[in-house]
Amino acid sequence: MTPFDLPRTSRTLLALSCSLPLISLANADEAAQCLALTSADPSVRFVEQRFIPAGERPQANPGRAALTGEALSKLAMPGHCLIIGAIGERTGQGGTPYATHFELRLPSPWNGRFLFQGGGGMDGVLGQALGAIPFRGATAQPALNRGYAVVSTDSGHTGRNSSDAQFGLDQQARLDYAYAAIGTVTAQAKRLIGDYYGQQPDHSVFMGCSNGGRSALMAAQRFPTAFDGVIAGNPGLRLSRAAVAQAWDTRALNAAAPRAQDGRPILAQALTQADQTLIANRVLAQCDALDGAKDGSIDAMSQCHFDPSVLQCKAGQADQCLSAAKVTALRSVFEGARDSRGNALYSDWPWDAGIASNGWRAWKLGSSTSGEPDARNATLTPGSLGYYFMTPANPDLKLDAVEFDEAAQATAQTAAINDAVATQMSSFIGGGGKLIVIQGNSDPVFSANDLRRYWDRLSADNGGAAKLGGWAKLFIVPGMTHCGDGPGLDDIDPLTALEQWQTESKAPAQLLARGTAFPGRSRPLCPYPQEAHYRGQGDAEQAESFVCR
How far apart are CA 138 and CA 490, in angstroms? Predict the structure, then answer.
């Protein structure tokens, strides 16, 4: 029996047999023990192996970014053993070298827990295994500093950056990115943890945002006995169709954009920043007070139904309005990608104040003043669609050549291995698994409405909302864009909530959120479908003045 397969009950008994909750390598030369650690698996090669003394700070090298947390420069790490390794080195399609790289950090003392840190984008970058809370505003302590053994991976390929999708030409690399690397790395990490500490983890958690959030859901869906805790932030659960939607949005906005001298559309000028602010203000004027407090945040998200035609310029009007072309583009984006028969290719999008944010602009519009776009949708999507999501691959794909009538079929093969949409999760539930999902309502990358529909299916297939709430919670953050930012409260600590759920059987009735977008404010994040409403009395800047209903 491998550590990967060791039953949770056995792991728990092992943990309970220890006299101390934190397992220290006292009375041993930690550096020597770290250097003595080996893998009995011949497919594993250690690339780097050293003991890092307490107080050292993470590397600032952007090529080894954490990907799941930004405020790390002031972090002083605990003493720990660092192992960087390569699993299954091989030569793949076109003579390209492949391996599943991992970074494992083994702290002293150890709290008996293991955390798998998700990546981002198309992966291909080995993030520093710190276990930072995967939201940009988060100030809570990273998992490593809490005593977790933490692992990260590049998901089976090395890219120029986390946008490089050329690995999609290789069959095994596709499988590794989709899900297989999770199992491969988890098995090796748990073997090394067992060898180093003399016992297996009593709790195993997967935490990530964006593609890391999708990977987190994959951990629960495809490796249900390997993890008993999962935190998925802004998950790209239907990553394949979201890529199609990115092509759709770019084309729709280009139709409203002015032309450069070379005739190409200037995507960034399809909507100006003033236009975005105008839209956000009108949405707020209609929806802000629906939760009982007019405060710049739309907490009653389900009640906000906005029609952009109210912004269309009347005859003779030139200010504080939008042209017919801009209104048409907005409607096309927010109603969602469709084929010529009217079939939805992805999802519609919720209207929220985050449309005025820098994050929304960075993904949908960019800032380029020429016909060469720099919006992330325009720069990332051709490669991800052409190399990875489409079968057969089309490396020369241009966004204006995407055939939406063929998109569903073209992405079907990758969707079958990549999309995290399973609802049959009986093994995860039966093993005591707990799932926390957090989503920004203003996410311009993955629609919160798509996640809502998935959650409704998950509820229907698992006995209804009450039973689902016994093991899974979805929290939607008003105003928050992709993994943080926007006019939302993105200082959240789901890891502590998960720990309490696992050890005290205390399911989170809400999460407390704060953030720099509204200094001094706190709000409850309510489990979907509940939303926060002002009680009608008390300080509207404080969470206790709101109720979830």
Answer: 6
Q: Which residues are catalytic?
A: 210, 443, 482
Pairing of strands 97-107, 149-153: antiparallel
Q: Ramachandran region of residue 141, left (φ > 0), alpha (ψ -120 to 50) or beta? A: beta
CB count in 10 Å sphere of residue 93: 14
CA-CA distance, 546 to 293, in Å (whole number)? Answer: 10
DSSP 195-206: HHHSS--SEEEE
- Closest residue by Cα to residue 118 from 201, 191, 167, 186: 186
Q: Decide if 84 contacts 103 (C-beta within 8 A).
A: yes
d(CA 178, CA 225): 18
pLDDT digits (tens, 9 = 90+) for 344-393: 999 999 999 999 999 999 999 999 999 999 999 999 999 999 999 999 99
Evaluate whether 433 touches 348 at the Cβ level (below 8 Å). no
Alpha-carbon distance values, 452 to 15, 380, 492 (Å): 37, 25, 20
- Give me the DSSP letters along 232-277: EES--TTHHHHHHHHHHHHHHHHTTSPB-TTS-B-GGGSS-HHHHH
Q: In DSSP terms, which residues pair with 100 in a beta bridge? A: 87
Report residues of the chain scoring pLDDT below 70.
1-28, 60-73
Distances (CA, A) of 235 to 75, 161, 211, 400, 446: 26, 20, 6, 27, 7
d(CA 167, CA 178): 12
Single-letter code of the amino acid located at 412: A
Tell me which residue of 190, 186, 234 sits closest to 206, measured CA to CA.
Answer: 186
Task: Find the DSSP H helices in 317-375.
Answer: 324-335, 358-364
Contact 424, 461 (CB under 8 A): yes
Give the containing element (helix H, strand E) for 533: strand 532-534
Q: What is the pTM (predicted TM-score) of this model?
A: 0.94
Spatial distance between the Cα atoms of 97 and 246, rounded to a whole number of angstroms: 30
Specify the pairing of strand 511-513 against strand 523-525: antiparallel
Residue pLDDT, tens place only, 7-41 = 333 333 333 333 334 655 544 588 999 999 999 89
Q: Tell me the C-alpha distance between 154 and 226, whole Å.
A: 19
